Amino acid sequence: MKPVIFGLSGETLTPDERAFFADVQPAGYILFRRNIADRQQLRALTDDLRALHGRDDLLIMIDQEGGRVARMQAPVWPSFPPAGMFDRLYDVAPSSAIAAARANAHAIAVTLAEAGITVDALPLLDVRQEGASDIMGDRTFGTEPMRVAALGRAVIEGLAKGGVVGIVKHMPGHGRALVDSHLGLPVVTADEDALLTDLAPFQTLKGAPIGMTAHVVYTAWDADLPASLSATVIDTIIRGKIGFDGLLMSDDLDMKALSGSIPELAAAAVAAGCDLALNCWGRMDDMVGIARLLPDIGVKSKARLDRAMASAKLDRDNPPLETLLATRDHLLAMAAA
Question: CA 172 to CA 196: how far, in whole Å?
Fold first, then answer.
């Protein structure tokens, strides 16, 4: 098995992809809108991936946050609100906001599990800061670490009830970035004391099954390399100060924050301490290059992967999707009252 998550080019596996994936045995896959047409097609695709590897617990992930980040779209699937809605409700009724976030995540998980998707890149634990790039914005649970952690925990719990594993992101915190890391490299110059605010939600949820790194330079810790490529940040801050011992994946290596060839970046991320490199775009040349440069997955990383995938078991007594959505909407209405 190679320590990498690959994207796919389309709605079905091409013959070249099928042969390559069977040979390389990546740790998992990530899906985007280009891979999704309808319920029947999506379930057939995920079933095909599982059959190819003979692994019922295959890591098949998606970015289904709600709001502006949603790969599975209406009218085929429900629309889900952005995290900022739960932040607003928390101002009025904290316990209701937590219950609403849990019900919403549970509903997301029901739709994902039906499609054969096992992992969602949610929740964001980034603490939003005044003046930061809007790439986070209403995708976050707000500006107060305790609130972010409380709502984030509810999301992980809700996803797990529906049989889906959550990912806390973007470690050690993207909330101060003045630049969208999809477009350029953010450099955060805050000192270590200020950065304690960013670390706090991740420390509270350090037992999360999976974490995703940030393509952000933190000059207080490593003035040269972004967290995804920095052994110092991964070992000293994420594994050390935060205390996270779950499965750690990089953010997408194709983002403009990083420079260099995609295979070299994948190798650098794994060498720095990421358990898995994330390569989203399904370009065969890049994937072949990654497979050539990456070692086989390490024993510790494989154990983390297995532990993460075993952390969410579908509750056979799940309430109907409609009930979960109605519960969420009833609670969110309090924020508008």
Answer: 10
Q: Are 20 and 312 in contact (CB under 8 A)?
A: no
Of 63, 120, 198, 251, the active-site residue reads: 251
Half-sphere exposure of 26 (CA within 13 A, CB side): 28
In the prediction, which pLDDT does 181 show? 73
For residue 123, pLDDT over 90 is answered with yes
Those residues whose C-beta lies under 8 Å from the C-beta of residue 194, and which sit 6 or more positions away, are none
Which residue's structure tokens are 């490299």?
185
Closest CA to 211 of 202, 219, 224: 202
- What token pair was written down for 205? 């949820």
DSSP 241: I
The answer, yes or no, to whether residue 332 has pLDDT greater than 80, is: yes
SS3 state of residue 293:
helix
For helices 83-92 and 94-114, give the axis angle rounded to 10 degrees: 150
At residue 34 the predicted structure's pLDDT band, cuts being 50, 70 and 90, is very high
Find out whether the peptide bond into 75 is cis, omega within 30 degrees of 0.
yes
pLDDT for position 36: 98
CB–CB of 289/261 below 8 Å? yes
Q: Which of 53, 57, 182, 254 is catalytic?
A: 182
71, 32 Cβ separation under 8 angstroms:
yes
Tokens of 244: 């996270």
Per-residue pLDDT at 133? 67
Concerning whether 215 is annotated as a catalytic residue, the answer is no
What pLDDT, on a 0 to 100 scale, did the predictor assign at position 299? 98
Residue 16 and residue 87 in contact, taking contact as beta carbons nearer than 8 Å? no
For 57-104, the DSSP string reads T-EEEE-EEETTEESS-TTTS-----HHHHHHHHHH-HHHHHHHHHHH
Say if CB 201 and CB 145 are below 8 A apart.
Answer: yes
